[in-house]
Amino acid sequence: MRTLALGHHLSARRLHAYYVLTKPRVNTLIVFCAVIGMFLAIPDGLPAPATVLAATLGIAAVAGAAAAINCLIEQGIDARMARTRGRPLPRGELTTGEVATFSAALGGSGLAILYLLVNPLTMGLTLATFVGYAVVYTMLLKPHTPQNIVIGGASGAMPPVLGWAAATGEVSADALLLFLIIFAWTPPHFWALALYRTADYARAGLPMLPVTHGAEFTRLSVLLYTLILFGVSLLPFATRMSGWLYLAAAVLLGARFIGFAWKLYVDYSDPLARRTFRYSIVYLSALFAALLADHYLPI
Ligand code: HEM
Ligand SMILES: CC(C)=CCC/C(C)=C/CC/C(C)=C/COP(=O)(O)OP(=O)(O)O
């Protein structure tokens, strides 16, 4: 009886460890952006429910596998950083072999779902995104250049394009605007965090911008990218993809983001950087929700 209870306890913990490995919170927003891409791709009406379901599952599975591979490759680095040392691999909750098998099974199922139940284009683009994050960003860029997250951000910006491809079988210029929004958003999102985690990154030997170029240059970069993001976020309105409701949301959310970035530049504190990072997530979630609301409630 006791062994049984212990066994059960252990397997629940292991299940939880696999779940943690997929970086579920980051990937929830990734998948949210992909789903919104599916809806925006259909000018009048709704995407096919079976496609939405299969594409959501497939993209989520491949994104989870990408996160698990990242944890696998970076277990040594993760062990050296306060923020990441509680992850399953550094804690020894799972072995390298288990994580490799899990990732291959999850990623393989996701790609199969996309190929068989969605379309080959979505499968191909999702595979490219996976390679972009797990190999190009994690292995090639992250350890070598402070521009790592700017270039690697192209992977994180793909979800709406994947959603678009899933719903229509093609990629349009409108989808690329959504890509550009996330692409411009990633530097302030990440560098706000890197500013208050600089010691962690320095200890891990990673060349993040505040480590290589200092805090002041990073704060200026956050401000500049937030201004670029503001401009880019107006493009869906400028091209008449979205209407006034979206414009109002983009201006209000963007003004607040610039407010954070400005304050961070002139009067830095770690708690403010932490709030800016938190706000970046609220910003992107609300902006994409506004794109969707605007699509169906044309004001
Ligand atoms: C190269 C691109 C990116 C980098 C380097 C990056 C980096 C990070 C880091 C280091 C964290 C901290 C997690 C923690 O507190 O332990 C984080 C959190 C987060 N990121 Fe990103 N990110 C990137 C792209 C994205 C994208 C594209 C999205 C979504 C569309 C996203 C959504 C989130 C969310 C929702 C969180 C909060 C997770 C939580 O509350 O635990 N990130 N990101
Ligand atoms: C197939 C598909 C849609 C893939 C999505 C790719 C993906 C998961 C992008 C998100 C980017 C991300 C989690 C960055 C974390 O940075 P990091 O790895 O430097 O953070 P860490 O220090 O917390 O490990």
Automatic annotation (TrEMBL):
Major place of residence: membrane
Membrane topology: Multi-pass membrane protein
Cross-referenced InterPro entries: Protohaem_IX_farnesylTrfase, UbiA_prenyltransferase, UbiA_prenylTrfase_CS, UbiA_sf
Coiled-coil residues: none
GO CC field: plasma membrane
Location within or outside the cell: Cell membrane
One BP annotation, GO: heme O biosynthetic process
Keywords assigned: Cell membrane, Heme biosynthesis, Membrane, Transferase, Transmembrane, Transmembrane helix
Catalytic activities: heme b + (2E,6E)-farnesyl diphosphate + H2O = Fe(II)-heme o + diphosphate
Record field: transmembrane: 26-46, 52-73, 94-117, 123-141, 148-169, 175-196, 217-238, 244-265, 277-297
Role according to the record: Converts heme B (protoheme IX) to heme O by substitution of the vinyl group on carbon 2 of heme B porphyrin ring with a hydroxyethyl farnesyl side group.
Family from the record: Belongs to the UbiA prenyltransferase family. Protoheme IX farnesyltransferase subfamily.
Name of this protein: Protoheme IX farnesyltransferase
Name of the gene encoding the protein in the UniProt record: ctaB
